[in-house]
UniProtKB/TrEMBL annotation:
Source domain of life: Bacteria
Similarity field: Belongs to the MscL family.
Identification of the protein by name: Large-conductance mechanosensitive channel
Protein's cellular compartments: Cell inner membrane; Cell membrane
GO cellular component: plasma membrane
Described purpose of this protein according to its UniProt entry: Channel that opens in response to stretch forces in the membrane lipid bilayer. May participate in the regulation of osmotic pressure changes within the cell.
The keyword tRNA-binding appears for this protein: no
Keyword entries, A-Z: Cell inner membrane, Cell membrane, Ion channel, Ion transport, Membrane, Transmembrane, Transmembrane helix, Transport
Gene: mscL
GO molecular function: mechanosensitive monoatomic ion channel activity
Subunit structure: Homopentamer.
């Protein structure tokens, strides 16, 4: 089998396609959560804390210097407000994934219970039980 054929076989497996779909949907879900945090959750929190815009909070280590146009230096700052927003986004995504996995596990557990026993397994179980009664 050639390298190309092996790659094609690998790439067309169901798991690889499922993973690709999951990554694409995950990226879109991340954008939705970012919008939810930045535009829905953080404004009321900022309002409750006296108008603080968390995304603009920073600790300036070295201010920008634009006094000399030939040697401008950018501001050096730790932007902890953006980190707070990212942390909230992570918590929302983690909670959503947890609830999704919990729901899927509940559904698969129900399907396992409701699945009919195959005829050959039922027959083997019956034979086993009869043999136990003989002994």
């Amino acid at each position: 089998m050639s390298l190309w054929q092996e790659f094609k076989t690998f790439a067309m497996r169901g798991n690889v396609i499922d993973l690709a779909v999951g990554v694409v949907i995950g990226g879109a879900f991340g954008k939705i959560v970012s919008s939810l945090v930045d535009q829905v959750i953080m404004p009321p929190i900022g309002w409750l804390t006296g108008g603080i815009d968390f995304s603009q909070l920073k600790w300036v280590l070295k201010p920008a210097d634009d006094t000399d146009p030939a040697h401008k230096t950018a501001e050096v700052a730790i932007q902890y407000g953006a980190f707070i927003n990212t942390l909230i986004q992570f918590l929302i995504i983690a909670a959503a994934v947890f609830l999704l996995v919990k729901a899927v596990n509940r559904l698969t557990h129900r399907q396992e219970k409701a699945a009919p026993v195959p005829a050959d397994v039922a027959l083997l179980t019956e034979i086993r039980d009869l043999l136990k009664q003989r002994s």
